[in-house]
């Protein structure tokens, strides 16, 4: 109350009070927005996916076509999210869009699967790629010890967690720096020989080539998680999304062209470290630097994901779909501290799981299923509310094409890997009873409520966090 009264006493006092008010500030301009998207998309995928794309497409020419089409399809999805980001002014990305278009249950399930299983798996997978590229040069030609890789991976996750807990400004400046490093990796495209042989192509394998390619393009949706922190979102969100995805598509196609200039298809399929093989052939003088650049690329993807995804949890707590403590902000650093810290122990568990690489299909199934639901919800919402102001509106043909393609990818993943995708589906469904017990109608015993409330208050005091004092949407 006192703070509210002081705000009316004068302009000078009003400015001073605004600095004291606990809330997430609009600090992300166009360059940080572009860096967030590019830095998150261009992670470990471009060094892993080329092998899967080539293996399932059957030829160099078709693999390059798949990379281009995956970029176009990802651009279509990003444009759909640009419409959603300018139509709904809250942060939270897919969670808030599902809540507004399809209702609370799909939105809760998105939070449930994302933060208990998917996001920790993604963080662990990218950090393990970071750890491998840091450690591997010191042990060539021998296999590096897995324990050391895990230790370096833990250090990588710890670094980006500390950065994102410490300062929003430091987090997005780190992202800008890492993005510029990865965008200027050297490469050569001379002496390229194209080929569209289709002898080894089978129709049941072609969708798997797209599956691998789209995995490498994943991450374009994280800007929508921080809508409330973007300066002039109606302009910067569509502009950042469009320019970023066009840039990434060109970069990916040219990177694969560069790979094929120095490696035959057979050699690429035999290589477990495509970037290292390319560097040893093309630019031997700086080949030792390549693992460092790849590691920084992975670190940028890790930082971008950890910057964007906690905002989804933050908004979920604010909407009553997650414990209230996660909707709180550090009173001095203005960062969503509990939401950022929540991912850290879960990522540690995933890192020390020896089967972490089997989680790729699990992660991709859940990701594309909910993306498809989100764009389907956008089409339904557009039909139900045709007069709702939409500062940016994607053509309906693009939205329909993308939604159908996403559901097709989900169906193919069930066919190609029923175990991992079935596990993902099952774990998603386990959120339904949790929703009806804890959210739809709170049924926990009073003793459990008292214990939970006591723990929440102690955590709030320990972390020095409080809820937002002004509305930012």
Structure report:
- The protein has one domain (25-467): Up-down Bundle (Amino acid/polyamine transporter I), CATH 1.20.1740.
- The protein contains 20 helices and two strands.
- It is 70% helix and 1% strand.
- The chain is an all-alpha fold and 473 residues long.
- The chain has a two-stranded antiparallel sheet with strand order 1-2.
- α3 (30-41) packs parallel to α11.
- It is globular.
- The model is unreliable at 1-17 and 186-196 (pLDDT under 50).
Which descriptors apply to this entry?
473 residues; mainly alpha; Amino acid/polyamine transporter I; two-stranded antiparallel ribbon; globular; disordered N terminus
Summarize it.
With 473 residues, the protein is mostly helical.
Biggest sheet, spatial arrangement of strands: 1-2
The main pleated sheet reads as:
2 strands, antiparallel
**Principal-axis shape:** globular
Task: List the domain count as a whole number.
Answer: 1
Number of strands: 2
End-to-end Cα distance, whole Å, is 21 Å
Could you list the spans in which at least 5 consecutive residues all have pLDDT below 50? 1-17, 186-196
What is the helix fraction of residues, given as a range? over 70%
Mean pLDDT: 78
**What is the CATH class?**
Mainly Alpha
Helical run tally? 20
* Element order: H for helix, E for strand: HHHHHHHHHHHHHHEHHHHHHE
CATH topology: Amino acid/polyamine transporter I
Write the CATH architecture name: Up-down Bundle
- Secondary structural class: mainly alpha
The whole-angstrom Rg is 23 Å
The CATH superfamily bears the name: Amino acid/polyamine transporter I
Q: Strand-residue fraction?
A: under 5%
